[in-house]
Amino acid sequence: MLGWLGKILRLLQSRFQDHRRLSSGNFRKMVRDIRQMADVSGRLWIQDTDFQQRVRRIHTEMDQLDELLTKRSFQTLSRDKKQELHHSLQVSREELLKSIHSAPCPTDRIQ
User: Fold this and answer.
1) Is 94 part of a structural domain of the chain?
2) For the residues of 31-99, what is the DSSP string, one character each?
């Protein structure tokens, strides 16, 4: 008897976690983080014009996503689309972290 009750509680817990993870507030937080990381990496790779274009494209995409989050149409997106969007934002975040870690040293002097 307790086994099925535990399964139901775990199912409810996972649904609440998914709901929180796919909420518009969480997406806004991710957009803000990615935008800030793009700013930092843009400052680190200031000499690379291709990378600067990429940073500008990231900013425009994040602006579009932020605008979508304020509209009612975001709430009507399917759960699969939201999960796909969440996954792509996580991948973008990881790529920006890699670019920040691989940035050239700003000076030749040993500190």
Assistant:
1) yes
2) HHHHHHHHHHHHHHTTT-HHHHHHHHHHHHHHHHHHHHHHSGGGTTS-HHHHHHHHHHHHHHHHHHHHH
The tokens for 56 are 């500008």
Number of domains in the chain: 1
- Give the whole-angstrom CA distance, residue 43 versus residue 67: 25
The tens digit of pLDDT for each residue in 21-69 reads 888 889 999 999 999 999 999 988 888 889 899 999 999 999 999 999 8
| Domain interval for residue 34 | 23-100
Dihedral sign computed on CA atoms, order 39, 100, 64, 26: negative
